[in-house]
């Protein structure tokens, strides 16, 4: 295997924001009288906002009109923007520094909006070669479109890309795009990450990424 570029999801991989996204989703649904467990939203990480709402309602056998969907979507965004605080995931940041120092192309592919992505990435000590946000695609994860868009911006084959993910839909997106996928257990237990090529602890991320880039697997 020859890995020439590495792509990272953002929420839950680079920055510890997923718990705030989940809190915002639960608050927005609860305000309309619908209560859901945290896992409902963790398992839908990466799915576009309005599609998340529709999917949750479909699985609950609830018919929701566009007005309700829009209201929940706006409330979630506003709550997240007001209350979210975040810390960078140290193991990922150190891995990014190593890749940057070795001039390995790095990309970020996320379902988050460009405004928030720009805010987060501006605080990192590295510069990404490629950035794909939720505003750049028609279909979010698990569609392969987000990762394929990143791949199309570099001359490498899909099989030469490594993707670091933390959620089932992101893993599916990466695999459908043709990449090798590492799943880190930052937000979900490994039983939910089984479609990845390898599941690892965050503390082992740098070792596995360097091994794959150096062809040591």
From TrEMBL:
It comes from the Bacteria. It holds the Pfam family HAD_2. GO terms for molecular function: sugar-phosphatase activity. InterPro entries: HAD-like_sf, HAD-like_SPP, HAD-SF_hydro_IA, HAD_2, HAD_sf, PGP-like_dom2. CDD domains: HAD_BPGM-like (cd07505). This is HAD family phosphatase. It comes from Fictibacillus phosphorivorans.
């Amino acid at each position: 295997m020859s890995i020439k570029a590495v792509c990272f999801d953002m929420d839950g991989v680079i920055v510890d924001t997923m718990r705030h996204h989940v809190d915002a989703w639960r608050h927005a649904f609860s305000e309309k009288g619908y209560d859901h467990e945290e896992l409902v939203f963790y398992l839908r990480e990466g799915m576009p906002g309005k599609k998340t709402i529709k999917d949750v309602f479909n699985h609950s056998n609830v018919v929701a009109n566009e007005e309700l969907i829009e209201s929940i979507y706006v409330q979630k965004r506003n709550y997240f923007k007001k209350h979210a605080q975040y810390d960078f995931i140290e193991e990922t940041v150190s891995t990014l520094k190593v890749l940057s120092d070795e001039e390995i192309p790095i990309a970020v592919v996320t379902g988050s909006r460009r405004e928030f992505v720009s805010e987060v990435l501006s605080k990192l000590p590295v510069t990404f070669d490629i950035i794909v946000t939720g505003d750049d695609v028609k279909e979010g994860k698990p569609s392969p479109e987000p990762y394929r868009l990143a791949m199309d911006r570099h001359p490498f084959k899909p099989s030469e890309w490594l993707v670091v993910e933390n959620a089932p839909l992101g893993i599916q997106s990466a695999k459908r795009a043709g990449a090798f996928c590492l799943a880190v257990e930052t937000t979900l237990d490994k039983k939910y990450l089984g479609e990845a090529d390898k599941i690892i602890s965050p503390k082992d991320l740098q070792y596995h990424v360097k091994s794959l880039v150096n062809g040591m697997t």
